[in-house]
UniProtKB/TrEMBL annotation:
The keyword Nucleus does not apply. Keywords: Repeat, Transit peptide. This is Pentatricopeptide repeat-containing protein. InterPro entries: E_motif (IPR046848), PPR_At4g14850-like_plant (IPR046960), PPR_rpt (IPR002885), TPR-like_helical_dom_sf (IPR011990). PPR repeats lie at residues 22-56, 57-87. Signal peptide: none annotated. One of its GO terms (biological process) is plant organ development. It comes from the Eukaryota. The keyword Transit peptide applies. NCBIfam families: PPR. One of its GO terms (molecular function) is RNA binding.
Amino acid sequence: MYGKCGNLELARILFDNMPARNSVSWNNIISAHGTHGSVNDSIELFQQMKDSGFEPDHITFLGLISACAHAGEVEKGYQIFQSMIEKYAILPRQEHFACIVDLFSRAGQLDRALNFIDKMPCKPNSSIWGTILAASRVHRNLEVAELASKKLFELDPENSGYYVLMSNVNAVSGRWDGVTRVRSLMTEKAVKKIPGYSWIEVNGVSSVFSSSDKSHPEWESLYLALNGLLSVLRDEGYVPDL
């Protein structure tokens, strides 16, 4: 819990004071540091895990590769993946392949990610192609985005998130005809965009909000405050990415 919340200091204090540890607790603390980009700490903990007599498993390596992906340590992450297979005789699962694709994609190495997918012994799932599509938007690679979206529309044709992401890729690239084409495809396949919701708790009372929501009893005051914040942003020179 502390690790996922980003409080690595408290997570580490609890871990260090545990009367007994097992593979689960070691994997949790390794993953916690990795998620927040502390790749060196993750690797150091991995060594301590082995020194303590615990053998790493497939979850351990997921945490380590993910740590490298978040920190941009591409070669180190790929070396860890190879050592998992060659040194520890752990066969990679779909999740490990997805982690390597994420490792390359985050660094903008989309061609390398596609080459890796081609050599995978198993068929890539929607999670892997979704990673490619998301990275294509970040790195503005329309060609790769179109390839990934084609695969995703075949694998998961009712997932509105992929259509929206592909529409955003086109918008970022200034391809408004592509935006129209994707929206028309959604209409043709009767795909409905699921609205996103936000939760906030104030004084023990939880409130739920969605876009253009007016169900809250104080919605007028809330929108007034929101517009005030937007006005301050504009005065500071902020230009929104539409």
